[in-house]
Amino acid sequence: MALEKGKAKAQETASFKAVKREWDRWRRDKTHITTKLHKTYIRKSDWFLTTHAASEAALRRLIFIGLRQKKVPYDSVQTWMDGHSITYGKQHGHGTFIVYFDRLYARSWADTMKAGADLEELWKLWNDYSKPVRNGLAHGARKYSDDWLDVALSIDRLFMMRLDHVISPVLGGTAFADLRKLTPRLGRGNSNISAEAILNIQPNRVRETVPLDEASNRLDAVVKLPNPGDADGP
């Protein structure tokens, strides 16, 4: 992968500008997406990272809706999703997302990708281009010039827009706005139905985070320790 060289700003291509115009129109009412973005960015890499995070949130949203349609209560779905990772790969068996999707919807992910003229290609590009760029940036392993980031941004935006177009008729409305507008509306759910039962998986150990108070107290204890850098020299 090409590393960023120099500080010169790349000229935005006609394709990038066309996708951005469509994106700006599409996202106006997509509150689930827009709340994850910022109004301004200092660096294009930050712009891309938040957009890619929004695309992952879009995929997780489909699992959320699928579970709710299977009558898993809202609080149970939210708790399950907050405590479990969903991983992504190009095909069934690569990560958990497609496995979960196929167990929730009558039309498989593979057939969903074929339902749009360019959606399958965008899904491949999302996995093979945008995701590696995201990983390189997020882990501080790579820097990318604006032309690389423009392509990644366009892929993520087009993928979300084309996915929305294909999946909305299945859901009875867009997945990325107020879910109360779906037709039919999502019901209250049945407390006897769990996400694990619907997805046919064993209960996983929930990811645990150290509580805020404990983390804060432990940090305070570390800060109060003598700083080796302040020690007098020999």
Task: Break the fold down into its secondary structure elements and pairings.
Layout: H1 14-26, H2 31-34, H3 44-69, H4 74-83, H5 97-104, H6 109-114, H7 119-138, H8 146-171, H9 195-199, H10 212-224
Written account of the structure:
The protein has 234 residues and is mainly α. It has helices spanning 14-26, 31-34, 44-69, 74-83, 97-104, 109-114, 119-138, 146-171, 195-199, 212-224. It has one domain. The chain is globular and about 65 Å long. It starts with 13 loop residues before the first helix and ends in a 10-residue tail after the last helix.
Total individual domains? 1
Major beta-sheet overview? none
Number of strands: 0
Write the element-wise H/E pattern from the N-terminal end onward.
HHHHHHHHHH
Pick out the low-confidence regions.
1-8
Mean pLDDT: 90
- Rg computed from alpha carbons, rounded to a whole number of angstroms: 21 Å
List keywords for this structure.
mainly alpha, 10 helices, 234 residues, 56% helix, disordered N terminus
Write a concise synopsis of the structure shown.
Helices cover 56% and strands 0% of the residues. It has helices spanning 14-26, 31-34, 44-69, 74-83, 97-104, 109-114, 119-138, 146-171, 195-199, 212-224.
